[in-house]
Amino acid sequence: MLQRLTNSGPMNEVLELQSTYLRSKPLEDRKSLGQFFTAPVVANYMASMLHKPKDKKVRVLDAGAGTGILTVSTAAQLLELDCKLVHAVLYELDSSVISHLNQTMKLIENLYQSKKGQFTFEVRNSDFVLDRPAKLESFDVSVINPPYFKYNVKTSPYAKAVSDLYSGDPNIYASFMAIVTASLNEGGQMVAITPRSFTNGLYFKNFRDYLLGATAIESIHIFKHRNRVFKNDADKVLQENIICKFVKSANYETVEVRASDCDSSLTNTTIQKYPLELIVDRSNDQRLIRIPESLMEAKHLKQAEQLESTFTDSGYFISTGPVVEHRTRNFIVSADNRSNTAPLYRPHNVTPYTALWTGEDKKDVRFELQEQHEKHMLKNKNYVLLKRFSSKDEKRRLVSGVYLAKYFENLEFIGFGNKVNYIGVKSGELTKKEAYGLSAIFNGSFFDRYFRCISGNTQVNATEIRVMRFPTRDQVRTIGEEVLKLKAFDADKNNTIVNRVLKIKDTV
């Protein structure tokens, strides 16, 4: 049914309605509403993840309907599952799309009549978060592509709008998912395509607590290329997207993980089942959702779980560089200004093993030690620097270099920008040997793959590093002692040393 619907009939008319709307609405206007419309093949795939609801009359909730393509695919799938009585409630804030949406629903109404079924619908031209479904309303199915945008927690009407469900305001799409979850019957199904960011990070911690407490993850679909899911908006969609299916009040021991190259090959996915404890990390209060893209990554994740300690328990700390450049512009001067200044380290100063500032790179700058500079600067000591950002398609996520106090031994302070993380020991001094051991671990392919299972974001957050399984300090020192014998950074030799000391079988 879904394939037939894609190739002819109602879906073609739906796509024409969607195309008409897209031509009439500039991208910037849609971006302000968080609108990124779903491709038909993705919509059909999401709907295909549904199983037959237990009730004879199925209630569908579409939390951000757009032109209705997700409800079209959902209704077609339910018809395929022999659900002949379906009622859909569709929310859409943009009044300019309502006429298109009503036309789309009429097409589905006619389809059901032709199959001796009944499809009814109610379109609500209102804000799903601010005008959420009444407490007595409940639904069996919700397939959603919620809007994605951040908002001002001090002035936005969305701030604290879901505080009855969880605390914090990470992003509007989390609010959508939470309200849908609250609106589902026991056993109700939610299939959502969203950024991967909710699976990790401190900002989403309370949302994860709520979501994983109310539902169980049945399956996760990961896209290997983040920019191919929303083709029309590829330049604007920078985060990795995933499709997740959650079931209200369920309890699963395994999670199905699917992976596909892009939206055109969704029917040709790799499918693996993993124990729940491998996917949801319950060893700390973060409850990170890890997603191995392949069996190889799953093996890496399992090996990482066998490490004896965590980053924090091994005695290390990690923080973001304190210099926020757009707030300290009056402190920042050119590299050749040496009077009462200190070098300011930026990402370009960090390469594997080394964190050098020469003043010769056109991006090099200094930080002026004027009044109140202390709150922006750090004592000149040994540190390990870790880049916070990588480009979208960069092969490595973790890049780490060693900063030694002797580089600028006459300076009391050193500057690190907020686009790098700095690492040290909680007590005592970080030795050169231990610093190189830490850098070697982060520059190794094993930890890079391990981190990718934890985070799909191009940003390396300190929160994820703190809870990662990690070698003991003795192991770190042993690795450092060996890599210091190398004349320069060599990725293969680095991997050999790290894997041998940690007894890791690095399958490529």
List keywords for this structure.
single chain; 508 residues; alpha/beta; Rossmann fold; Adenine-n6-DNA-methyltransferase TaqI, Chain A, domain 2; six-stranded mixed beta sheet; 15 helices; elongated
What does this structure look like?
Helix 14 packs antiparallel against helix 15. The chain has 508 residues and is of the alpha/beta class. 45% of the residues are buried. It folds into 2 domains: 2-291, Rossmann fold; 316-502, Adenine-n6-DNA-methyltransferase TaqI, Chain A, domain 2 (Alpha-Beta Complex). Residues 230-238 have low confidence and may be disordered. The protein has helices spanning 2-7, 10-24, 27-32, 40-48, 69-80, 98-114, 172-183, 205-214, 276-279, 295-305, 432-443, 445-454, 462-467, 473-483, 491-502, and strands at residues 57-62, 85-91, 118-124, 139-144, 184-195, 215-223, 241-248, 254-260, 270-275, 309-310, 316-320, 332-334, 341-345, 350-351, 353-355, 365-368, 378-379, 383-387, 400-403, 413-416, 420-425, 469-470.
